[in-house]
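Why do we bother with a discrete structure alphabet at all? Because it lets us treat a fold like text: something you can write down, compare, and reason about line by line. To make this less abstract, here is a complete entry for Tripartite tricarboxylate transporter TctB family protein. Read it the way you would read a sentence in a foreign language you are learning: slowly, and without expecting to understand everything at once.
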Amino acid sequence: MQRSQTLVAVGTLAVAGLLAAGARDISSEAGYAGIGPNFVPWVVAAALAVCGLWLLWEALTGGFRNMEDDGPAPEVEGDGKPCWIGFAAVSAGILLNAALITTLGFILSCALCFVLATRGYRASQGHPDLRPATLVRDLLVGLVIAAPVYWLFTKLLAINLPGLTASGWI
């Protein structure tokens, strides 16, 4: 077990090194708050390095102290098999959102993503509901969630998101 724990520690240190190497390529020019855009990646890399060193110290001095013994596997809801239909629906929602966001606009593409994601999650729970009323309800809920987010970003934060019309409200 200590060998696998050592590998986890070394992997954490490797990820920290990769983040530090990536942060080195990011500009350090101070921005709005006097902090450059490379600040957060450096903080994350440093925190991961500290965690990796701590994990390595624990692995080399007797193993992870607070780790529970391997017991029986936790119970899994359902039959434990992957739900490929649900996975496909959620994946399609995410991919269609990315593909259609410039064509349909942020609000409609996010509402479509919400509809497909809810279909996928319901299918994974064994409760696929294919009634048109449910589809319309999910679409309306998706619109109610996406529209305020769009307005928050475009009107209050002045961040450009693709809209359906040039008015900036849809």
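What the structure line is telling us, in plain words: The first helix runs from residue 2 to 24. The mean pLDDT is 86.
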